[in-house]
């Protein structure tokens, strides 16, 4: 994206990142959004903003998220859990402070990383199934080394090439 200073390049990127951060459970509230230059106090200064995104999901993303959900749900005691949907195109809406989709199942399609993170925590750092669909879509899902996943959870995530190397090494170990 090119443009002169003050033309809204960063604002546009923030408008994309904010609803995605809420939907993927990276943040709980708009005020938790940590982006250099984003001032939560100004967010609703001139009324409640409405942001609509059309998000496309690949078959691999949908499959990986649903597989992670099933493993995560098995660790839960609640019985009213909503399984992620299988929509290829989801309209994500942020209306003021409320972030939503047409159905709850569509909203939970964004929770793949949340499920993976919780599985890592509940399984005590053992190897876990990961859908690296959000980093490298062309790579299949394999069991990978927990230290690579732990690095990915931190703010200094390794480059996609490290994920690929770890995935390929793990695939060899399990004979895939």
UniProtKB/TrEMBL annotation:
Organism lineage: Bacteria, Bacillati, Cyanobacteriota, Cyanophyceae, Nostocales
Protein name, UniProt field: Uncharacterized protein
Organism: Dulcicalothrix desertica PCC 7102
